[in-house]
Amino acid sequence: MSDSHNPKPDEFAWLEDLCDPRTRRFLEDENTRVERFLAGHVGLYRAVISELMALRSVFTESPAMPVGNYLYYDRTDSPDGWPVFCRRRVGTLEEEVLVDVGELASERGSLHAMVGSVKPNDDHSKIALSIDLTGHERYTVLVRDLENGRFLEEIPDVYADFEWSPDGKGLYLLGLSESGRPERLLFRPLGPQGVGHQTLLVEPNEHYALTLARSRSRAYLFVTSVGAEDTEVHYLELDRPNRPVQLFYQRRERLRYWLEHCRDRFAVLTNLDRTDLRVMFAPCEPTPPEGWIEALSPAEGVVSGMDAFASHLVIYGHENGCGRIWVHDLAQGETWPIPAPEAGVPEGLGVFSPAENGDYHARWFRFEFSSLVTPEGLWEVDLETRSVRLVHRHSIPGYDSGNYCAERVWAETDDGSAIPISLVYRHGCAAGTVRPLYLYVYGAYGAVTSPSFSPFRLPLLDRGVAFAIGHIRGGGERGQAWHDGGRRLNKRNAALDVIACAQHLIREGYACPDSLVLAGVSAGGAAVGAALNARPDLFRAVVARVPFVDVVGGMLDETSALSALETAEWGDPDAPDELAYMFSYSPYQNLKPGRYPAILAVGAMNDTRVPYWMPAKWVARIRSYRTGRNRLLLKTHLDTGHLGAGNLIDELEDAALEWAFVLACVGRDTHGDIAEKATTQACP
Asked: Family per UniProt (predicted)?
């Protein structure tokens, strides 16, 4: 690629062409390097994979969710790790297997099977499942008759979202554009009466994508056109299916809103007349903002979602990256926070998140609670009395939370912004005792990276590696302004925040450049890559999984549905000043000769969000520029997409590769392999 802003030609453009024999050979050679690395650290890899597999048993069965007269759940205890979706009648122990994903994948000869949604119809006689068998995120919906076990329908080339009609005789689906954008609301009658799709709504604007949801009351279907800065909601009254789809309120610049059905009115989640979201109410009919009333906004925290029940409205949000939940009593008009159900959780670090809740008339609301040191628990709160009880907690073999410590520290940037950092480590890794540290960042799309518990970090923590999350700008941890501060023409701030986090952790004695690892996934790869270009000296190693490291190439790719949808996040390549800004920080375009830390990059051949060639070209150019002999590895999955294989075993093997790489780089290979040693002394 050559451009007036960046006239240097792209010497690795051939890697974008799978018909070029050099491309396949390059990817195979790079995968061979990874195999050689694992062979050289086989003891470490086997130890880590063994520890992860032992933790697998923790999640072999999900807590059962009551829906009607059934308890629905899934388990992953099969040898191959594919999920099996099941149910049993309330009051019985007899299991009914609804869908065995491993069986489906095997029958179709696929190594990839990512499940989007699984939903029974209203009378529980059928089950529908959306599944992606290629990794391209073009789903097939399968419908199974649970009375005779036969698959009735197979509906290809749709999006993951779908909803049942109330009578169970049809499905509402989202049809895809050629580039993969959800653009059409479809209705598909099932059985003999099914004659193709009926198109109910089309979103022609390539800068918007449709989402689909049925209200918890089961009375309405909401179809939301989602753009980067505004939304528009259509709805269908499901008890009047012959009535046309209704537009609630036409899109307006920078106005975002979503609907839920709440008794005799709509709850409207919106940023009307403010930066962040709040909840308002409106009649169940097309209504302009002048008719939206009774704003609800918690005293502290940022609102991000809502859920309606017959007597209460539940409001989700967060504060500095930690999830919060509030309950609004519809009869009394009172709003109250759900209190932390566990003692001993570090102040401000407890994370609430919604669990599955099936019954609109339920008195008990389910939620999950954890922290960096507290294993996740499934809890219920009585919406009338506010009492809380524990429903289920995963038991982590050999885990004692008393061996670990979590804390929140703040890094200050040159422009005066304060960046929250969440930390967890084994005792003995506190400030003043420098140990290896793994710093994870994301910083895009207003997404919140919560400091919740993960047992799969234990192979790092138990070898003395601290784990940190840098809640950098571009995410939503501190509201819309936090997102705005790290997107579009502020995107460089995300990388500057990464550097500020690293410098703070080093200055305060938590880490040292010789043992600091930086990691990011997907859009987080842009911040990681830009920080690496600016300060390669700060890091011992970098991990970049499906990393968006060619921002310019991605946004100029007209075949991608995401390029048009995401201009508000990354910039408009048709605007010269914005394209120039992208060139100024895009990691791939700003690589230069010099010494780089050790790097592990991971790509996926069928990735439609971050094409395989992004990490491939990035690694190829680094290899041509670098001095020194630090490890440089690229693993490309040849049969999966952006979201992985959908298989727990494959996910754990990927984690084991990453942890083995990190531990080898920081000198924590404790199993006799040859490792690059890193200092654990205080930094000068």
From this structure: Belongs to the peptidase S9A family.
